[in-house]
Amino acid sequence: MAQAIDTTVAVMRRDGRGKGPARRLRVQGLVPAVVYSRHREPLSISVDPKRLREALAGEARFNTLLTLKVDGEDGDRLALVKDHQVDPIDQKSLLHVDFLEVHMDEKIRVEIPVVLDGKPVGVVEGGILQQNTRFLQVHCLPNKIPKEIRVDVSHLKVAQSIHVSELKMPEGAELKFTKNFTIAVVAIPEKEEVVVAAAAPVGAEGAAAAPGAPGAPAPTGGPAAAAAGAPAAAGKPEAKGKEKK
Fold it and tell me: I need a labelling partner for 128 at 20 to 30 A (CA). Which of 2, 53, 70, 147 fits?
């Protein structure tokens, strides 16, 4: 049985803003962060990135409901990670985190991964399965966040697709969309065209015919002309001497 992950994260208030204070925090092994809320002012904090990664190590990842223990506050805050920035060089080190404070009786909007189930009939027939959407925005209560949205595509034939309006959502979650976009489709494979070069017939227009062959141009001089039986071109006449008187 998998051990339960502790989702409680202790954070500290911070006063300084800007690149200088943020750089000093990172030197100390902390990351600047902000807790946003619908009911109170944003709160600037610092958080231990290692502890945060441990709390987010479950299957829900960034949709994990966290309990923030803010120093100086009596009660805890429930929050989700809404955005984060990583170092562009190593693509791992956290540079900044945005939290959103949530309440158990208020719906929130989260992005849920889409997982396709089954092998479509159209793929067996030679089609190609294409997934057009990998995440969907879902509205739900904080304790009703689905881990993933599974979509059965086994019935799809070639050129058939499944749209967002056809999905069945888990209890307590709903989709809000203005366009009935495509989730997945079994595309028709493109046919490769094979081009075969035809040999040009002898004497055909645009093809060079052999010397002496019917339809070939008459030789105009030179070794090739001599070989074809044409008389050699006359050379320059020699100058005649003057007659002695």
Answer: 147
